[in-house]
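S1.2 Input.
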Amino acid sequence: MANKTPLLLVPGLLCTADLWRDQLQALEDVADMTVAVHHQQDNVEDIATAVLKTAPEKFALAGLSMGGYIALEIILRAPERVTHLALIDTRADEDSSEDKKKRQDFIRLVERGTTFKGVTQSLLPMLIHPSRFKDEDLTSRIFQMAHEIGRDGFIRQETAIMNRRDRNAELGAIECPAIVISGNEDALIPAPHQKEMAGRIPDAEFHIIPECGHLPSMERPFETNTLLRDWLSW
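S1.3 Output.
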């Protein structure tokens, strides 16, 4: 198909391109896709700078979780380059003091440890819907992504997340077609919170995916792909 839409996909914390495996396959007829790598810098501003250096002149932009924080930094910095925006299970707030302390404690724990397990079985309830806990294909992919990012990459990512700025007051400046997608049982960023964020973006559509946690692109790829395909046609 000619005239495919350039689409930049930004993964979340401890996630690699495998987060978008199903989108890379299902949307290849309508989108020319690349996946950002962002575990080499320790602040959102530097990550956005690096991503923009290699991104197409104009592109659609989709980010999940931490990827959404980066996507907001990108579009607010270079709005003329972003043609469409998709925010998936993410938020525009900065970390609360309690959130920052949890991240700092986790970083110290990781720094003291001799091994880095990344995502463990005990953390899965925060990431995926309870119905998927025994899905070995899904869970093994999540574990493998965390392993590939590694301890140092994780520390850099957590540091970047912890020090990001609140973007709520700037959401009204977003002018491109925007969609916010939420898993209805996201334990990390509840769907009502994401709906509130969507309401601050002019004309943004908000969609909830049922029986889904924090990772719709992996948990419910068909529903996610359907929404993204439609969004790209706006």
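S1.4 Remarks. Residues 115 and 157 are 18 Å apart (CA to CA).
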